[in-house]
Amino acid sequence: MIENVPKGNGPFPVVILNHGYFNTSSFNTGDGTQTMADTLANNGYLTVASDYRGFGESEDTPGQQSRGHRPDYAIDVLNLIASVKNQQKADVNRIGMWGHSMGGEVAMRTAEVTDKLKAIVLWAPTSTNAADNAGFYGGGRRSPTPSNSNLDDISAINYINYITAPISLHQGLADTEVNPEWSKELNEALQKENKSVEYFEYPDQDHNFRNLGWDIISKRTIEFFDRYLK
Question: What is the span of the domain harbouring residue 203?
Fold first, then answer.
């Protein structure tokens, strides 16, 4: 876990940061979240970024480190949310969440089982349909094995009716790390369930929105959190 605290006495609204996929052997705490943490801290938000199990110095079950898109990462984030009360300058009644790539999928899973979140921002999330991820990253849509025979049961898309927090969803249309259609489908699913969602597409932007210099997407992210957490 890594914490970034704004200057001042607080208490400050909190944003939980969920990083995307990294090879666990090369991951360092703060990878995938540090720039966003600095941006949010400069705008008055206390940020907390987790190391999912097997990442950084977090423990993990032996032999499991190579698996990606693990539903139990959401358990790690739920534990992190529970620990916010121990942060001296944190306002436990104003907690939001940001997730990029796989971290967006983790954010969705988390939001479906807690009402502690007041706002969620997703940047280029991986699919909320486990079969999509298995096919895109696992080399084709093979018949499920006994260990993942019920992909529907672990697909966040099937439980979005439980989400209570408003969502801001952002997707670059030149993204090759995720399928841009996944964000379009998620937006449509959220609207169908009458959830509060805003959706932005960015033509010619890749998975990390490099050509934008983060200016536009960061501004929209801050404005969204300001609306619901301040």
Answer: 2-60+68-140+148-229
CATH number at residue 101: 3.40.50.1820
Strands 2-4 and 46-49: antiparallel
Tell me 58's DSSP state: -
Which pair of structure tokens corresponds to residue 137?
């990253």
> What tokens appear for 88 in the block?
């001296």
Domains of the chain: total? 1
For the segment 93-142, what is each residue's pLDDT rounded down to a tens digit? 999 999 999 999 999 999 999 999 999 999 999 999 988 988 888 743 33
Nearest to 115 by CA among 139, 92, 87: 92
* Single-letter code of the amino acid located at 104: G
Question: Could you tell me if 199 and 169 are in contact, meaning their C-beta atoms sit under 8 angstroms apart?
Answer: yes
Structural element, H or E, at residue 133: helix 130-138
Say if pTM beats, i.e. exceeds, 0.90: no
Which residues partner with 14 through β-bridges?
A: 46, 95
Q: How far apart are CA 99 and CA 168, in angstroms?
A: 11
